[in-house]
Amino acid sequence: MSAADQEMNDPTSTPLSTKNIILETGASLAQNFAPVKAICAHLNAFHVYTSDPHRCVEANHYCSHISEDVRQCLIYDTPEPNARLIGVEYMISPKLYATLDTEERKLWHSHVFEVKSGMLIMPGPAGVPTAGWEVAETKEMEEVIGLYGKTYHFWQVDRGDKLPLGGPELMGSFTGKEQLPEGLLAERDERYGVSSAQKKEKRGYIDEPAVETDADQAWKK
Fold first, then answer.
1. DSSP for 151-203?
2. DSSP 3-state assignment of 73?
3. CB atoms within 10 A of CB 57
4. Which of 24, 102, 109, 120 is deepest in the core (most CB within 10 A)?
5. Is the distance from CB of 185 to CB of 121 less than 8 angstroms?
């Protein structure tokens, strides 16, 4: 991480000292980062604040599988080396969601609209043919569409906070086109060189599961 990158991300921070850069480099060579190395997918979408669904923030998910029924994701504000860790998301299968009590179920959100609208993407690595990558992405969407997510953000970067201030915020997902701020997807799509509209078409064959009524409480208040 360069000093320039740090200052761009947070003007109040002090660039890493030479000592810390050397220590970090040595640790990365010698230590075992098994939990982080288990990350197998980068997903990009948007989260809404359940306390105020008119507020949303871009979320880069870096996810690993605990089992076939449970995933866990670190949420960053960008995919860059100086990205800030702003939250976590757990994803579970409908089978596990059905075991939760009523109040707990209200804390979880669906992914159906994110998948079917083309909003949820799996950014492709440089050098990989787009057509081939989209096949892999669409297969991933076949699994994600039925999952329920429970997400907390700790750092409200959308309001300009330089540090993670206050308590955690329960987050949700968009569940309909009318909820989207104007230009939100177009701006994201341009940065990543993708088309949500085309992804929507490619995912048309994916069955749309019924969403449990207790989920997505952000839009039911």
1. EEE---GGGT-SS--SS-EEEE---SGGGSPTTHHHHHHHHHT--HHHHHHHT
2. strand
3. 20
4. 109
5. no
